[in-house]
Design a protein that fits this description.
about 140 residues, alpha/beta, 5-stranded parallel β-sheet, about 15% strand
Amino acid sequence: MAQDENTTVLIVDDEPANVVLLDAILSPLYNILAATNGEEALELASDPTSPCLILLDIMMPKMDGFEVIRQLKKNPQTRDIPTIFVTAKAFDKDEELGFSLGAVDFIIKPFNINTVISKVAIHVEYYQQRQYMKSLVKKGS
């Protein structure tokens, strides 16, 4: 990956053990930011050094993952950041709602380490390619 490419992943989960585990899996490959609630996630995602991917728990107090993604998609600065729901809720209606709100994928807890690494890598690469293509369009304008 080029030095100027964004390789920051934001992990959002109210359970510290889940944050620690995902951080341990992904930190050798990516820069990691972590949030334990929706408000903190929205703040970190809106930072000028916004993440290239968000791993978002659905079940959180105060603001659940569905509301977080609604807010992310309303903000022009964060709407294009791919979001993967990481959840123990494996119900079709939750997946349907998540996808309709703009999620790009789901990872079901307990998760397989290789699945996490693979899904994150795919969506980070896709995001980086989109950003590169946008930069080419801007240069050509």
